[in-house]
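User: Hey, quick favor. My workstation is busy. Could you predict this chain's structure for me?
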Amino acid sequence: MDHPLIDLINQKIAEAERDGAFDNLPGAGKPLPEEDDPENALLNRVIKENGGVPEFVTLSRELEKLREELRETGDRTRRTEIMKEMSMMDAKIDLARKAHR
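Assistant: No problem, here it is.
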């Protein structure tokens, strides 16, 4: 099933072509760049352009904070809790990396 506005869209594209809107575009005549994840290329670009980072990066930053807290903590009970949190964080990072691929 076509988009309900397909005729209007095609008309606007044809007008833009006639008016030269697509002439002399950067990269014209060159192959498109390789994409690691072509299905999500647009989404990944928008996220990147808006300062977003993959989940595993955010989780890695949280893990680094836990490591720092562990270095600074002398309380054995708290150190045990931090190490448990770090173990869980490692597992989450691993899962997020696999999901990101």
